[in-house]
Amino acid sequence: MEIPHRLPPLATRDPQRRTVEFRAMRPMRTTAVVLAGGTGRRLGLEAPKQLASVGGRSILARAIGAFDAAPQIDEILVVMAPGHLAAAELAAGPYAKVTAVIEGGASRTDSTRRALSALEARPDGERVLFHDAARPFVDGRIIAECVAVLGDAEAVAVAVPSSDTVVVVEDGRIVEMPRRDSLRRFQTPQGFRLGTIRGAYERALADPEFTRNAPTDDCGVVHRYLPGVPIVVVEGSEQNIKITHPVDLIVAEQITSRENAPGSAD
Ligand SMILES: Nc1ccn([C@@H]2O[C@H](COP(=O)(O)OP(=O)(O)OP(=O)(O)O)[C@@H](O)[C@H]2O)c(=O)n1
Ligand SMILES: C[C@](O)(CO)[C@H](O)COP(=O)(O)O
Known about the structure:
This protein is of the alpha/beta class. The protein has one domain: Spore Coat Polysaccharide Biosynthesis Protein SpsA, Chain A, CATH 3.90.550.10. It is 34% helix and 22% strand. The chain has nine helices and eleven strands. The strands form three sheets. The chain has a seven-stranded mixed β-sheet with strand order 5-4-1-6-10-7-11, sandwiched between helices. The radius of gyration is 19 Å and the shape is globular. The site of the ligand C[C@](O)(CO)[C@H](O)COP(=O)(O)O has 9 residues, from strand 10. Ligand LQXTBERG binds next to strand 10.
C-alpha cells in the first residue's frame, strides 16, 4: 500500500513499506474521534456545552452513542476540555467502544493533533472520523456512508446545501455573491485515511502561517496543505445541527421530543 503524503526518510523507506504491507493484511479499523475539547463560549453556560442535557441525555453522550451504535466503527476516542475529564468519562461509561478519554488543546485543530498523537502507533491505512461533540444528532446513514467512501478515497466530508444566499462581506459591504447551487454548509464527521491527515498536519506545522491563521476544521487543513487530495462529499442532514448559540438548545429539545413519539424509529 502506498503512503503518498507521509514519506519516511529514504534510508528507512523500504523497511517501512514492508511494515505497511504486513499491516495492510489486517482488517482496516475505523476509529471515531469525538472532539469535545471546547468550552462553548458562544452558548454561555457555566460548564462546557457538550455536558448540557437535551432530552434527558448529555450532548456528549448522544454524540458518543451515535458512533457506538454504528457497526462500521471499531473504537471511539473522546477528546475533552481540560478540567472536565471525569465528566467525560462518566458520559462515555455506557459505551463499550470508547477506549480512551484524553485532554484537548487550545483550538479544535490542537485537539485533533492530540488525537493523532494518541493514535500514532496505528497504520497509515486505517480510517479515522473526526466528529464535533456539539453535533449530537449525527445519524447512522451519515456514518456508514463516510466509512464506505474511505474504502477508496483518502478524505470525506459531510455537507448540506445552503438554504440562504451566502455573501462575502468586507468593511460592511458585499464584495462577492457566489452562486448558491454550488455552496454547501459543512458538518461533521470529517474522515480520512490516517496517513493523509497526518501528512496534512505535518505540512501545516512546518508553515508559520498555520498558527496565525489555522483552518476551522480538519478538511480545511487537508484542503490547504494537500490540495491534490480530493475530498469526497456525503450528503448531511438538517438534523445534524451544531449546538452553538442558545437557540440551538431549543431546536435540540424539539428534535429529541420526537424520540419517544409513537412510530419513531429512535
Ligand atoms: N479547543 C477545542 C475547541 C473546540 N473543540 C470541539 O470542536 C467542536 C466544534 O467547535 P465549537 O462548536 O466551536 O465548540 P466550542 O469551541 O466549544 O464553542 P465556542 O467557539 O462557542 O467556544 C466542538 O465539539 C468542540 O468541543 C475541541 O475539541 N477543542
Ligand atoms: C467543523 C465544523 O463544524 C464544520 O461546520 C465547523 O467548521 C466548526 O467551526 P467552529 O467555529 O469550531 O464551531
